[in-house]
C-alpha cells in the first residue's frame, strides 16, 4: 500500500521549523538563521520513497504582526493548516508555555487533523526539562504523537518520519519521484542572499531586507552571472549594509557566492546593488512585486 500526504510544520519563530525540514530532506531548501522571522513564505518540499511520498510545508513563524509583510507571513502559516494530513507543531523546552504557543494551540482546537507535538532543541536541554515540558504541553492539547528531537543533530528525526508515515492515508504519488521542491531556482537564489544578509547584519536592519533577482544567466563557459537588488527600508540602513570600506556587503556577497557555487556546481559571479524602498514592508504593491503575494 502506497501512502502519501501533506505535512505542515508550524510554530513560533525560531523554534527550528526550517532546520527540521532541511534535515528530513537531507538538502538545504529553506534558509536558516538565529534571528526570528527568517522564513517568509510557505516552502513546499517532497520526500519520496518506494512506500510513501510526504509533501512538507515549511511555514513562517506565527507571531503578532507589526506590518503588512508580517500579516502575509502569518496568513501563509495559518493557510498551510487547511487540507493537510498532519500538522506538526514545534516548540522548544526550557521556555514557559507562553501566549504565542497558547494562541497557536487555541487555533487548532477544533481541527480534525492529527497534530504532532515536536519538542526541538533537546540537545540544549536537560532530561528533566524535556520531561517537564512534555507534561505541560500534553495538558494543554490532545496531541496524536509526541516526539522530542534535535533537528540540528538529527536526533530522533527518523522516529518522527516513521510516525508521520504511520499516520498518512493510502494515496497516490502526487509529484514525480525525482522532484524535491516546487520552488523556483530564482527564489532559492534570492533566499540565499537574504540568509547571508541575516547572518551578517545585526539588530533591526536584517528584518527589513528583501532581495530581488534582476538577472540570472549561465554563460557558455558555465559561469552563472547573477545580479540582485538588496532592498532595505531606510537610508540609514543602506550605510550599515555596505559597512565600513564596503566590508559588510563584501561578506554578504562572498558567502552567498560560496553557497551558490556549491549549489550550481559552477562558478558564480554575483553583483549586489543596495536600494532603499521606504517602508516597503507596509506597501502592498512593493510586497507583491517582491513575491509576497497570495
Ligand atoms: N541547539 C539547537 N539549535 C537548533 C536546533 N534546530 C534549529 N536550531 C537553531 O535555531 C535557529 C532557528 O532555526 P530555524 O530553522 O531558522 O527556525 P525557524 O523555526 O524556521 O524560524 P523562522 O523561519 O524564523 O520562523 C537557528 O540558529 C538553528 O541553527 C536544534 O535542534 N538544536
Ligand atoms: Mg524558518
Automatic annotation (TrEMBL):
Keywords: Cell membrane, Cytoplasm, GTP-binding, Membrane, Nucleotide-binding, Ribosome biogenesis, RNA-binding, rRNA-binding. Gene3D superfamilies: 3.30.300.20, P-loop containing nucleotide triphosphate hydrolases. It is a peripheral membrane protein. Residues 201-278 form the KH type-2 domain. GO terms for biological process: ribosomal small subunit assembly. GTP binds at residues 11-18, 58-62, 120-123. Its main location: cytoplasm. An essential GTPase that binds both GDP and GTP, with rapid nucleotide exchange. Plays a role in 16S rRNA processing and 30S ribosomal subunit biogenesis and possibly also in cell cycle regulation and energy metabolism. HAMAP family: GTPase_Era (MF_00367). This is GTPase Era. It comes from Clostridium vincentii. The gene is era_1.
